[in-house]
TrEMBL record:
One of its GO terms (biological process) is meristem maintenance. Residues 2-162 form the Aminotransferase-like plant mobile domain. This is Aminotransferase-like plant mobile domain-containing protein.
Length: 162
C-alpha cells in the first residue's frame, strides 16, 4: 500500500520506495544538474515579448505542426536542419508521453518548448529527479479513492517492481 506522507510502499516484509539511484540505474537519466522545476516560469521567460505560441513553435521547428498533428517519416535525404527539427520533436514527444505523460497519452505539452529549444542544455537538467517527483505526485494522487486513472512515468514503477 502506498503512503503519501512518506512516499513509500508498506509491504508485509518492510517499507520500500523508488529512489533516485533506481531512476538513474533503470532509466539512465541524470539525477544531478539543473532542476526541472518551475516549468511555467521557464515557459514564461521563453514566451517574453508576447509572441503567440505558434511563432515560438515555428522558430524552433522551422514549420508549424502538420495538419494531422504528426511529423512525417524522416526523409532518407534529410538535411542536418531537418534532422535537428525531428530530434526536437521526438524529444518533446518523449517528455510529454513517456517521462511526464498525462491521461491524454497522445498530446505534446507546449511547456517543454523552453527545455528542447537548446539541445546542448538538455543533459544539464536533472531529468531523473523530475521523473521521480512526477511518479511520487502521481502515486499520491491515485490514493484518492475518487481517482480512477493513473498517469505518469509508470514504466519506472513497473521496472522497479521487477
Amino acid at each position: 500500500m502506498w503512503h503519501p506522507e512518506t512516499h513509500t510502499f508498506y509491504m508485509p516484509f518492510r517499507e520500500c520506495t523508488v529512489t533516485l539511484q533506481d531512476v538513474a540505474f533503470q532509466l539512465g537519466l541524470p539525477v544531478y544538474g539543473w532542476a526541472v522545476t518551475g516549468c511555467l516560469g521557464e515557459f514564461e521567460k521563453f514566451m517574453e515579448g508576447g509572441r503567440p505560441t505558434w511563432e515560438w513553435f515555428q522558430d524552433l521547428f522551422s514549420e508549424l505542426p502538420p495538419p494531422n498533428k504528426r511529423f512525417r517519416v524522416l526523409p532518407a535525404d534529410a538535411t542536418e536542419d531537418t534532422v535537428r527539427i525531428y530530434a526536437h520533436a521526438y524529444i518533446m514527444m518523449l517528455l510529454s508521453t513517456r517521462l511526464f505523460g498525462d491521461k491524454s497519452a497522445n498530446q505534446v505539452h507546449i511547456r517543454w518548448l523552453p527545455f528542447v529549444a537548446n539541445l546542448d542544455d538538455m543533459g544539464r537538467y536533472s531529468w531523473g529527479s523530475a521523473a521521480l517527483a512526477c511518479l511520487y505526485q502521481c502515486m499520491c494522487r491515485v490514493t484518492n479513492r475518487n481517482v480512477t486513472n493513473l498517469a505518469g512515468p509508470l514504466y519506472l514503477l513497473q521496472s522497479w517492481i521487477f
